[in-house]
Structure of RNA polymerase sigma factor:
Amino acid sequence: MSKQVMNEIEDHVPALRRHAYRLAGSMDRAQDLVQDTLLKAISKKDQFEEGTSLKAWLHRILFNTFISGKRREKTRGPQVDWDDLGDVYGHGSNQMARLQLRDADRVLEELPEQERQAIMLTAVEDVSYQDAADQMCVEIGTVKSRVGRARRKLRASVGRIEAREHASRYVSEAA
């Protein structure tokens, strides 16, 4: 993809935003969809065939990204954006929720760097295993095994946290 084509992508952003808004139904989701589309287009720029319609190519990426998101929602259920959690947990209204969020952050920090990176890419940032493998410069099987180890460690840590919370509730009720 030539530099000229990269510059032409910018000309298509307003139309992409309108299309995304019609699909997503809200401006926030539309902005996220356009951003994901542009990231995919730039990362896959070598797949664009010069002489074909850039507009059609971008809109196809947008639509496929939207459909993939809908499929993900259907199989995984609704997802909560990490940025939105700050509004819920950051104002002191729910101390237990704030403690749980703190504990989750600590558990993630305890993971070895490679496992933390793998779980953050695949579970939090919702990157495919193949894309995570490409970003980490490892084989896809390596990413899968790192995610598996991270999940086992996270489950064990969450179990310890829940046991501690249960014990503290029992002690406070007994007092």
Remarks:
- The helical segments are 3-24, 27-43, 54-76, 82-89, 95-110, 113-124, 129-136, 140-174.
